[in-house]
Amino acid sequence: MNGAQSLIRTLVGSGVEVCFGNPGTSEMHFVAALDSVPEMRGVLGLFEGVVTGAADGYARIAEKPAATLLHLGPGLGNGLASLHNARRAFTPIVNIVGDHATYHKQYDAPLESAIEPLAESLNGWVRRSDHTADVGADAAAAVAASMDPPGRVATLILPADISWGDGGKVVDAVPPRTAKAPADATVAAIADVLRSGEPVALLIGGSACREAGLRASSRIANATGAKVFVETFPARLERGAGLPTIERLGYLAEQVAFQLDGIKHLIVAGAKPPVSFFAYPDKPSDLVPEGAQVHTLSDNAQDVIAAVEALAGSVAADTEPTLAEPARPALPSGPLTPQNWVDVIGALLPEGAIISDEANTSGLMVPMATAGAPRHDVLTLTGGAIGQGMPVATGAAVAAPDRPVINLESDGSAMYTLSALWTQARENLNVTTVILNNNAYAILRLEMQRVGADLSGPAAKALLDLSSPEMDFAKMAEGMGVPGSRASTAEELAEQFERAINEPGPHLIDAAVPPLL
Amino acid sequence: MNGAQSLIRTLVGSGVEVCFGNPGTSEMHFVAALDSVPEMRGVLGLFEGVVTGAADGYARIAEKPAATLLHLGPGLGNGLASLHNARRAFTPIVNIVGDHATYHKQYDAPLESAIEPLAESLNGWVRRSDHTADVGADAAAAVAASMDPPGRVATLILPADISWGDGGKVVDAVPPRTAKAPADATVAAIADVLRSGEPVALLIGGSACREAGLRASSRIANATGAKVFVETFPARLERGAGLPTIERLGYLAEQVAFQLDGIKHLIVAGAKPPVSFFAYPDKPSDLVPEGAQVHTLSDNAQDVIAAVEALAGSVAADTEPTLAEPARPALPSGPLTPQNWVDVIGALLPEGAIISDEANTSGLMVPMATAGAPRHDVLTLTGGAIGQGMPVATGAAVAAPDRPVINLESDGSAMYTLSALWTQARENLNVTTVILNNNAYAILRLEMQRVGADLSGPAAKALLDLSSPEMDFAKMAEGMGVPGSRASTAEELAEQFERAINEPGPHLIDAAVPPLL
User: Fold this and answer.
1) Do A286 and B469 touch (CB under 8 A)?
2) How many angstroms away from the CA of A414 is the closest CA of chain B?
């Protein structure tokens, strides 16, 4: 058994069943080994940012890691932005990076490049396999490291000769550590804060954004009057009819100031105290209201659900959560606007949908429009590195082939990782992409004002403008084998969206939604 | 004057007149400052790999650096693969990476990420501006560092508050060091080798691939009988009628063994002794023939042209170079093949063309077909990180608006950085892209056999296959505002190519060329 075979067999034995890859010559033995381990599904991406983003989306839904397969430093470099988002999502990923043969590195061949510094920049786990006999153990350790709470990117660097060498050994899965609940005393102290009568907000994140955490948080709010918020960019948020609707903390500092106005205590569970996404001249970076005290119920490496449930048990033993009633907006009509397109989605969102949300400024009103829609998951842009939406949708659809995946995608962000559409077509994935095409980096127009920069000049304006030439995403999609259409009215969007979610396979709708700003 | 203004004015004063950028919030003051310094041209790319690759292509033609503008670690990550190629090309680039405000970094906001480790992986020059008053000096130092022979990527990290702060100072250009010719004794010793009567090969690279170096090398070959080769992947090679035709060293170890068979001495000038691109089981990595002695006439940091001219002066004082006669292949007819499409290019290549060559396996016969075509430049894939061709073509066209740029591009590689087409349309650049569309990672099929991996299984085959779904590059191009067409016969390719090079602005031809292998 060669190293590659021991690697793949060990991964499969550890529960890793999908490998998103974009291989090169140094990964050819890994590719060949896929045929000897049919339990591993290889999914090809045409660009590494698609590969790593798909692995992120897969694990957010599958709740276990996928592997990636990348080609030396440049391949890892291309995958870094998506891995940055995965890091912020605490997504487990087993990131396999092929390298030159050990004896070949000294020759500084053209693709010779630093790999460790790039991998280490992700603050995860990094190891280089030095011996074929160790590859299986390294793979098992990588899987365990990726799943060690709260989850991380584990990168295993695999030199070509270690991969093709003989003497590989399959190693049993190493069980990851389990997350622990916080100490009783911590829960008791925070319960006292909630009982103090002072204004309190509870900010939840991580696994508390799933049903159990949301229910417990809603009970706490109902019993104590505390405000409850979900972190601004949750990796996976369960929403819809039958679940508590808990507002997300805003993106803008001004929104957060409004939401947290007057509180004296901020309890965080699986989330960090809020900070501004960017710095702005003469505005605070720390968004905890002045004078408010922060109490950490649970960090992300702990069992956040157990933490909020314990707190609810203490302060809200007999209180029920508030659950959203089924409710859908009416189907709108007329030309698309930033306000009405979200009602189309809210009116038609299918049962069990997964929304990969990178609608940015165009999507501000999506939460309102979908609060009473059938139960669904929302995957958000956790790390701010744009280009996440399409790859994450792709991976989510691989993880949940029976669920409809809806990708709400900004035009500017879409252009980073557009070739995800080809993988969606190749794998016949049920992804409906709605491009919110406003011909602009609209968020930067907003940000330019907020940082106090002067956007009145033509050179500055031009750099935020995507209208020259206008992009036709339907054509681009068709070029990659995905049926594409264009909508400029709410009726067209509704008709095309309904057809897309009812037909198998991927579809793209290029929706001409004017900028909000 | 704020920091951003002092930065841009210093860059302009140092001769940097183009900034390829994809900015975010932390770069907004840089963007705004463009309007106060109209001498700096901002060119928007929709993805950072396009931005950095365009800067590479620009400098290969303009012989001076462009600036980039990138957004934190993820932006730099997206640009790394193209910067890797630029590093291998010794291209001067002033790489500006925006970062969070200095006081904001402590809050670990979502986009907080390591920048220095990524920049340092390029083995270039890295500095972080810590004070607004220093930004001008830092910029001048970055330009000088980028141009210090043989050229490199100089990365300047610019925190948002340093950029928006007041007190910026414009700093005069710092002259870069000039390259020195090698010592007379070195030249004399190598002249003796050439006079020894033993079989000698001269391998030239770097600036010796330009006319002066080629002429001197041809004279040396004619006077001494030495074989002369150009390095496998030159950053910029001048070719065509009226210039010496010097064969490039092959990509495959087997080719190199054939080319260097029997030599006892290998003289290198601006190039490294040849090594295998990848390691292959039981094949050597070092491609210098056994027993041959390597002599370094000049490394790339020295004046390589002066070196080969001095050598020619010593051993070939009265010898003329051999210059290619004007000669073009006949226009072929019938269905496109890996053999005949190159004759279309050779027959129709316009005067003064710049070829951005990422045709990979499909392009093996381009050099033969174009040897007697009108004088042109070839920019090759220096670092092996695919996705270079379209961005480099884009930058080259910005540098030389009056020259026709021809991008010969593989299908698989094109999908990495396809949005370069949008920038070509926006800037109305004279780039004609010919996609060699063989529906495969054909090079990997070749490599799989060469590394001894078994490609007979369906899983392995599938990962190298791009035919499901087939890609329609003409549609994708039209979606980005570039006129697209499809050719499946030589006549169609000729007709479309001729029209494309005669019409202003970009064009794309999707050429159905079957795989060579």
Assistant:
1) no
2) 9
Asked, for residue A351, whether it belongs to a domain, the answer is: yes
- CB distance B84–A28 less than 8 Å? no
| One-letter amino acid for residue B169 of the chain | K
**Cα–Cα distance for residue pair B475/B275, rounded to 1 Å:** 40
Distance CA A90, CA A238 (A): 17
The DSSP result for B375-421, as a single string, is: PEEEE--SS--SS-HHHHHHHHHHH-TTS-EEEEEEHHHHTTSTTHH
Tell me which H or E stretch contains B309.
Answer: helix B304-315
Q: What is the pLDDT of residues A33-87, one digit of tens each?
A: 999 999 999 999 999 999 999 999 999 999 999 999 999 999 999 999 999 999 9
Beta strand A376-379 pairing with A237-239:
antiparallel
Query: Of A26, A1, A9, which Cα lies nearest the Cα of A137?
Result: A9
Tell me chain A's radius of gyration from C-alpha atoms: 23
- For residue B161, give the H/E element and its range: helix B160-164
Q: Which of residues 224-283 of A touch B (CB under 8 A)?
A: 233, 272, 275-279, 281
Nearest CA in chain B to A479: B472
B196 in A contact zone (CB under 8 Å) = no
For an interface test with A, the pick among B17, B47, B468, B472 (most A C-beta atoms closer than 10 Å) comes out as: B47
Cβ atoms B478, B403 nearer than 8 A: no
- Cβ distance B415 to A46 less than 8 Å, yes or no, reads yes
Report d(CA A514, CA A488) in Å as an integer: 10
Q: At B505, give phi and psi (nearest 5°).
A: 85, 175
Alpha-carbon radius of gyration of chain B: 23
Look at B81 and A80 and tell me if their CB atoms are within 8 Å: no
Domain that holds residue A392: 341-511
Number of domains in chain A: 3
Is residue B250 domain-shared with residue B367, that is, in the same domain? Answer: no
CB pairs under 8 A between A and B: 319
Helix, coil or strand: residue B497 = helix
* pLDDT tens-digit readout, A394-446: 999 999 999 999 999 999 999 999 999 999 999 999 999 999 999 888 888 88
A233 neighbourhood in chain B, CB within 8 Å? 110
- Indicate if A90 and A199 belong to the same structural domain: no
Q: Look at residue A173 and tell me if it is in a domain.
A: no
Taking 80 as the threshold, does the pLDDT of residue B517 lie above it? no
Looking at the fold, whether B158 and B188 belong to one and the same domain comes out as no
Please report whether residue B322 resides in a domain.
no
Residue A114 shares a structural domain with residue A58:
yes
Which CATH number belongs to the domain containing residue B114 in this structure? 3.40.50.970
- Residues B359 and B504 both lie in one domain: yes
| Distance between CA atoms of residues B392 and B86, nearest Å | 10
Residues B420, B473 contacting (CB under 8 angstroms): no
Q: Is B369 in the same domain as B417?
A: yes
User: Looking at residue A203, which CATH number applies to its domain?
Assistant: 3.40.50.1220
What is the predicted ipTM? 0.97
Return all residues near B42 (Cβ < 8 A) that are at least 6 apart: A459, A462, A463, B19, B21, B31, B34, B69
Phi-psi region of B352 (alpha: psi -120 to 50; beta: other; left: phi over 0): left
The answer to whether A28 contacts B444, with C-beta atoms less than 8 Å apart, is yes
Q: B228, B233, B272: which is closest to B246 by C-alpha?
A: B228
Tell me: the pLDDT tens digits for A236-267?
999 999 999 999 999 999 999 999 999 999 99
Question: Are A239 and A383 in the same domain?
Answer: no
A36 touches B at CB < 8 Å: yes
Q: Is residue B175 part of a domain?
A: no
CB burial of residue B172 (10 Å; 0-12, 13-18, 19+): exposed
A45 plus A156 within the same structural domain:
yes
Distance CA A336, CA A512 (A): 7
